[in-house]
């Protein structure tokens, strides 16, 4: 009877040790799995998930240029919410405040005032994604956001004393 109790005690000790080992292994497995997920996530965040210049049209032949030069008035209103006459009036005002670099150095992607104004208006009117706007204007995301910011700032300086812009 004593021997049977000793065997039972040994089995209990072995079972307890095995359970502790399995619990530790399970914890280590979870930690390794979590680290693998975090590593994969960091790798995915370093990967660029946006359009590159090579897949975009040159801005001078991008969709916006076709719409501006040859598009129907109803399409122009749909894209900008302005008639061509109102757009041209606002464009003349914006041109006083928006700086287009000239001279030496690399030429800007958006070379015309109407591209800058069209970018701002399409951004506010349309509910399109950044990649769609990149395709519309033929500019990569970083250039597009810089141009948009500059055009917004110029427009905010141009509108306060512009009587036609009052509501």
UniProtKB/TrEMBL annotation:
This is DDE Tnp4 domain-containing protein.
């Amino acid at each position: 009877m004593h021997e049977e109790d000793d065997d039972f005690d040994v089995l209990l000790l072995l079972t307890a040790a095995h359970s502790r080992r399995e619990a530790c292994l399970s914890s280590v497995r979870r930690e390794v799995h979590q680290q693998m997920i975090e590593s994969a996530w960091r790798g995915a965040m370093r990967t660029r998930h946006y359009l590159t210049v090579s897949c975009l049209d040159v801005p001078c032949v991008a969709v916006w240029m076709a719409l501006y030069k040859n598009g129907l008035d109803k399409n122009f209103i749909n894209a900008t919410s302005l008639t061509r006459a109102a757009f041209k009036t606002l464009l003349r005002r914006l041109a006083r405040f928006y700086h287009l670099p000239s001279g030496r150095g690399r030429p800007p992607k958006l070379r015309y005032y109407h591209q800058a104004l069209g970018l701002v208006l399409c951004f506010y009117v349309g509910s399109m994604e950044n990649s769609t706007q990149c395709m519309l204007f033929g500019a990569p995301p970083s250039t597009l956001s810089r141009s948009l910011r500059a055009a917004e700032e110029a427009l905010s300086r141009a509108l306060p004393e512009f009587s036609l812009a009052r509501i």
